[in-house]
Write a structure and sequence with these properties.
There is one protein chain. Helices cover 54% and strands 11% of the residues. The protein is mainly alpha-helical. It has one domain (2-149): 3-Layer(aba) Sandwich (Glutaredoxin). The protein has a three-stranded mixed sheet, sandwiched between helices. Residues 1-18 form the signal peptide.
């Protein structure tokens, strides 16, 4: 019984390393590989999912909406780098997120960038973008079109 419970715990930790919030990847190398394979940009969200009021707000008002999820599934690879205070992340995920924080955090949370498959910025920080779901979709559509025109 203990072996079964231990195996389930390891499986749960591994699954959470592959995907964060619904539809969001948490493994940076896998996200870049998927972006390259599918020829899509990456939308990376640096978030404090369980303590940052603005992060929780953007998740509820934009990222969890049906329209955004449908748009994102067709157009971007979603990548989440979480910095929670109430739960402990696996050590390897914590280390990866700290590296992403050094490279991408723009002063505070949430910080959201549109990146190419190599991690190069294609946008300004989109963390405080106004207009809700429609505003996000419109801005991402514009940025993706602009990046493809280059």
């Amino acid at each position: 019984m203990k072996t079964l419970l231990r195996s389930l715990a390891v499986l749960a930790a591994t699954a959470s390393f592959a995907f964060g919030s619904e539809g969001w990847m948490t493994n940076w190398e896998e996200a870049k590989a998927k972006a390259k394979a599918e020829n899509k940009p990456i939308l990376i969200n640096l978030t404090g999912s369980d303590w940052c009021g603005w992060c929780i707000k953007i998740e509820k008002e934009v990222f969890s909406s049906k329209d955004f999820k449908e748009y994102a599934a067709a157009n971007v690879i979603l990548m989440e780098a979480d910095f929670p205070r109430k739960k402990e992340l696996p050590a390897d995920l914590k280390k990866q997120n700290e590296e992403l924080k050094k490279q991408y955090l723009a002063g505070g949370y949430p910080t959201v960038w549109l990146l190419d498959a190599e991690g190069k910025k294609l946008s300004e920080d989109l963390g405080e973008l106004k207009g809700g779901t429609k505003g996000y979709i419109a801005k991402l559509t514009e940025l993706i079109a602009k990046s493809k025109a280059k």
